[in-house]
Amino acid sequence: MDTAKDTHQELLNRNNELLRQLEEANDTIEAIRSGQVDALIVRGEDGHRLYTLKTADQTYRVFIEKMNEGAVTLNRGGIILYSNSRFAAMMNLPLEKVIGLNFNTFIPEISASKFNEVIKRGWDEDFKSEILLANKNFQLTPCLVSCTTLDLDEGTALSLILTDLTSQKEAEWELKVKNEQLLAAQNAAEKLNNELEDTVRERTNDLLISREHFKLLANNIPQMTWTNLPGGEVDFYNQQWYNYTGRRYGETAGWGWQHVVHPDDLPHTMEKYISALKTGNIFEVENRYKKWDDTYRWHLNRAIPLRDDKGEIIFWVGTATDIEDQKKEMDRKDEFIGIASHELKTPLTSLKGYLQLITNYKKEDVPPVVKQYIEKASVAINKLQRLVNDLLDVSKIQAGRLEYAMGEVDLSNLIKLAIENAKHIYPLYDFDNQSTLGLRINGNAERLEQVLMNFVNNAVKYSQVNKQIILKTAVHDHVVRVSVTDFGIGLSEEQLDKIFERFYRVEDKKFMTSGLGMGLYISTEIINNHQGKIGVESELGVGATFYFELPLLS
Ligand code: ADP
């Protein structure tokens, strides 16, 4: 029991001693902080030692206290001789508890060996390194530690300045994450770029192939070809063009081609070209191009526009086909038709005369059957004469010799006569006269009647089921329109464009009708000579209205 008492008494004494020492330590720390002492004695393993702060003036202390970094001084054994409040705060301990502790207390196990190395080196030279510190709650703080030895009177101490790297590390981490994201984005962009480059390379290759393809094709067809921009400037010709014209690129590029078009054909060519560029419709025109030897040859020009996805024209592709030989062939045919129709006309006229004589022959009674034959022969001869007359007209038009005298014509009267005539020839048809009286124009009555009868003959020919035909006049702005309407087979859009051409006939096996495709061609020529206009409005299967327009005499 005594021993226990002693021990209790002993413990009390030691406790009092420790309390006293603690108070003393607190006083010392306070004294150091306030600058009252410049040195202190510390009891180490090898007895008491005196440490003096050589530059321990007030300014220095304040500076150390106020700075943002932790500052400690260690002795050789790693005991903390001095700490500023920032370090204590970093380690989450009251300042008085920090002093006297071994610095190892704040080194987590994972960085123990590194710290030992740092300290070892720090005693030899000024040295900086990153280390991890741990507080009593095992919270880790990354720090940059700068070691410097301090020569104190009582020996050398190691000063550590500890910079909390937490926010810097966080920033670094964020930066790292951002960098990684950036890198990922860069990689993605690079990949995309590579893919794009591949596509561009492929497309360029495709384009090159298709351009070569086009060139190969263009240079191996017999026609001359070109491409032109939406504005009209030509930017490509094939080899045949250069071979034919004997010109260099610069001479006919852009609008330079106009110099090789025959001057007589240029206005018409330009009109069609500009109109095609404006409307985007197919360009088609016949003209003569000057060859390298200064001779001209007829060509048929055609150009179609190439459009993008939005329908905008990118460029035009055109061809010029040499039709000189066909033209000559056509001329020879015209010449032949001219001669043939002329040659036919003489015997036809005498045949008609003899028939007339036979008809009028009254001396003896002609048997009725012979009379019938004579009538049939007359009909056939009239038809033949109409055909020969048409052929003659065509060859006259070709030779530019379709001439006739002009005078005042009463159109209303003309229509009336034409209807009477038509009723006589086509008694099964119903002709509806919707014309007004007193319409006078300047023209050739015979030729205008020819046009009107051509309309009527066609109306009958192409409306075998519905037998109603309307002849009508309409006046607008001192211009009279004379029209013939039927309710027959009508015409398609495509046919409408062509029926006024020479020898054009709609090829339709269903409607085997006689005719050589001359009527409308001659009519057009006649109306053009009258400074009038000829036209048609029609719908396939519904019917057709053919008309001409002439200026009225006031
Ligand atoms: P054709 O002597 O062959 O009738 P045209 O020059 O008078 O020659 O007419 C040319 C073509 O126009 C005809 O072959 C025919 O196909 C078409 N055509 C003319 N008139 C009509 C009409 N009223 N209805 C339908 N087609 C017509």
Would you kindly provide a brief summary of this structure?
It contains 15 helices and 19 strands.
Structure description:
With 554 residues, the protein is of the alpha+beta class. It is built from 15 helices and 19 strands. The strands form 5 sheets. A 5-stranded antiparallel β-sheet has the order 4-3-7-6-5. Strands 9-8-12-11-10 form a 5-stranded antiparallel β-sheet. The longest helix has 55 residues, at 166-220.
Anisotropy-based shape:
rod-shaped
Radius of gyration: 59 Å
CATH class of the largest domain: Alpha Beta
* Strands, count: 19
Proportion of β residues?
15-25%
What are the defining features of this structure?
single chain, 554 residues, alpha+beta, Beta-Lactamase, 5 domains, 15 helices, rod-shaped, binds adenosine-5'-diphosphate
Please outline the helices and strands:
Layout: H1 2-34, E1 39-44, E2 47-52, H2 58-66, E3 70-74, E4 80-83, H3 85-90, H4 95-98, H5 112-124, E5 127-134, E6 140-152, E7 155-164, H6 166-220, E8 224-228, E9 234-237, H7 239-245, H8 249-252, H9 266-279, E10 283-290, E11 296-307, E12 313-322, H10 324-360, H11 368-398, E13 407-410, H12 411-425, E14 430-434, E15 440-443, H13 445-461, E16 468-476, E17 479-486, H14 493-498, H15 519-529, E18 533-539, E19 543-551
Parallel strand pairs: 14-16
Antiparallel strand pairs: 1-2, 3-4, 3-7, 5-6, 6-7, 8-9, 8-12, 10-11, 11-12, 13-15, 16-17, 17-19, 18-19
The protein binds adenosine-5'-diphosphate.
Residues 454, 458-459, 462, 486, 488-491, 499, 504-506, 515-521, 544 line the site of adenosine-5'-diphosphate.
